[in-house]
Amino acid sequence: MAAKVSPLAGKTVDPNSLVNVPRLVTAYFAGKPDPAVATERVAFGTSGHRGSSLNNAFNESHIVAVSQAVCDHRRAAGITGPLYIGIDTHALAEPALVSALEVFAANEIDVVIDERGGYTPTPVISHAILTHNRGRTDGLADGVVVTPSHNPPEDGGFKYNPPNGGPADTDITSAVEKAANAMLENGLKGIKRISYDRARKASCVHRRDYITPYVEDLANVVDMEAIRSSGVKLGIDPLGGAAVHYWQPIIERYKLDAKVVSDAVDPTFRFMTADWDGKVRMDCSSPYAMARLIGMRNDFDVAFANDTDADRHGIVTRSSGLMNPNHYLSVAIAYLFAHRPHWGRDAAIGKTAVSSAMIDRVASKIGRKVVETPVGFKWFVDGLIGGSFGFAGEESAGASFLRRDGSVWTTDKDGIILGLLAAEITAVSKADPGELYQRLTAELGAPFYARIDAAASPAQKALFKTLTAEKLGVKQLAGEPVTATLTKAPGNGQSIGGVKVTTANGWFAARPSGTEDVYKIYAESFVSADHLSKIQHEAQAALSAMFAAG
């Protein structure tokens, strides 16, 4: 990060700074968003609509409008099967579930919720959708997860997964967003809604055991027997998220030597250590947010954590502490393609344009194709469904992979199986993922990777939409000739929303933030830390010149 690390980072959160949950929930029901204000409209990013009720960005009005828009989309698309819905442990999840059920039940949508009134991880919803739809051509299921992922406690989130089980594509989210905002503008007219008491008792609202089917199917994607028989000692931290009630059933079902280091659930997340900026954020790839589990690294052979909806993973090893997500993805790819004989010979590796080039070097070593896409897990859905991707992952610690027989597991990120894979790798390889990464770098070279944020006005951010290689004009980068300047991902020809410049031993990519007045520069060098710094400096200089030229 370009910003200065807060002195509070990595420390237990100050009780005086915790979110006021009653005020937050009151604002959800009492706040009335103004659709004339951009920040108070429904806005679907890469992971659904997110925001806080404290600034009128996530209110009851938003959720009933989005829920009605989802109902209308289902009718237009001919989706008639059940809608699986899950929530995480953020304070706004329960209120949003109430609002959504009032609308779904009024529209007579067959809705499936957790039988215990508990929490349901994102990958479990994807797994449920795909399980229901397997072999079907009609009566297809879809789903909703009420979560803002790892965002701070004051945030809420609402994301839709169509029948393919993965994140909805922009054609769907754009239509839902447009329809929901039209309802906001028209005073919520056209929304069907009944009371929560009636909704709970409605014949179309069904309760289901989400935990058992998912837990019992895990042996078909991870070698659970290898983990059990090895006696590898595991540490698990759900970070107070939706996976909290899944880990003990997994441990008991597969007789693992594992300890859940904390099963606390508290909507203030007071048990967390502060992230880099002093805020509470359940980011399992952050060394500051993961300070508790990192401090226990010597107590376990390998340990892992998930973010609040369990679609991300954080891997902690004795040998290297918290692994950089890119490092673990590289190890996971090398291991899986060597230990999954039933995967197709042509099964490729899906990676985002801002993920480490170490993945490309591993792929070359094992003779597998890399398909590079823009940021967003939605680009991997078709490949995972069809089995043309054996593994797909993002630099932000999100990934999924095929079942052991080569068929689809989930088409959304699954932090639970990535944690269990670290256990399998340790059990089978007799070395933890950190040690295996060191072996890879000894053979393929050690990359230096970093992301920084730089200030950019809305007008400057808009320039990325018209950026071309000619406009950027970079011919050399840190002393090496440029081999490619890309504005579209080579794997699927889709816009990367910015630019990527590559050389033989380094690269940078730049994209504007969708929520802040900054742009993000991802960079990597296979030469040295100094070489990385040169790449970053020259990248910023080239982009500053572009801004100046308008």
TrEMBL record:
Pfam families: PGM_PMM_I (PF02878), PGM_PMM_II (PF02879), PGM_PMM_III (PF02880), PGM_PMM_IV (PF00408). It is an enzyme of class 5 (isomerase). Residues 42-182, 213-317, 324-441 form the Alpha-D-phosphohexomutase alpha/beta/alpha domain. Keywords: Isomerase, Magnesium, Metal-binding, Phosphoprotein. The keyword Transmembrane helix does not apply. Its EC number is 5.4.2.2. It comes from the Bacteria. One of its GO terms (molecular function) is phosphoglucomutase activity. One of its GO terms (biological process) is carbohydrate metabolic process. SUPFAM superfamilies: Phosphoglucomutase, C-terminal domain, Phosphoglucomutase, first 3 domains. Its cofactor is Mg(2+). Residues 495-539 form the Alpha-D-phosphohexomutase C-terminal domain. Belongs to the phosphohexose mutase family. This is Phosphoglucomutase. It comes from Rhodopseudomonas palustris (strain ATCC BAA-98 / CGA009). The lineage of its organism: Bacteria, Pseudomonadati, Pseudomonadota, Alphaproteobacteria, Hyphomicrobiales.
